[in-house]
Amino acid sequence: MAHIIVVGNEKGGSGKSTTCMHVATALARMGHKVGALDLDLRQRSFGRYIENRRAFIRKEGIDLPLADYRDLPEVDQSTLAEGENAFDHRLSAAVATLEHEADFIIIDCPGSHTRLSQVAHSLADTLITPLNDSFIDFDLLARVDPDTSRVIGPSIYSEMVWHARQLRARAGLKPIDWIVVRNRLGAQQMHNKRKVGAALEQLSKRIGFRVAPGFSERVIFRELFPRGLTLLDLKDVGVENLNISNVAARQEVRDLMKELHLPGVTVNF
Q1: Domains located in the chain, CATH noted
Q2: What are the transmembrane regions (predicted)?
Q3: CA gap 33, 1 in Å, rounded
């Protein structure tokens, strides 16, 4: 059975699709079979990223590792059981088509609370929550005292993850391994950065997640999207001499893959 990786955050612009694409490509490059689903049925950033990659491969005639992306199948309402939710059915059917073919299934959730996102979180073996490194985004996880920066209590997103964990426990499934990834970290040890880090450390012990460094703000990530490329593909497309920023960004991808502790994965790129 495939190991399911869900990338979720109910705020947009946190780097979910970039994270999905780099994790998917890294796993494919290491020889794993990777399935991919995008639950943002309107924007489809992850889906479009993979479509751009397919188009680039065809145009350039080169061979690049590629995740097996599937759209959610449509459903005939008349075939649903009484009380069955159509979105639940579509997601279950999509996972069923991949779970015996893939080693990993990566699911990108929309930047809002939806039924699909809620169900996907309950399917997660590994949950990755990318978070921009600021208290604006930290509010997704918890409420903070404005004077002391101490955590007052979990947010509705954290409560949703807790509910997903309860559902898995009742079903006899293993617990979700939840990793909060700090994206757009500044290079300097700024006061706000330290305060966010301390708050995350405090909250992680209360509600049970691990904290991992993610991706810095780099122009290269935006430039790669139209061709469906990742930092791991640059040498394959003729970029022989990587600049310092690109080398550092590749190291960030490598460090993230190590921090995920995925089963059967040895990071070797």
Answers
A1: 3-260 (3.40.50.300)
A2: none
A3: 12
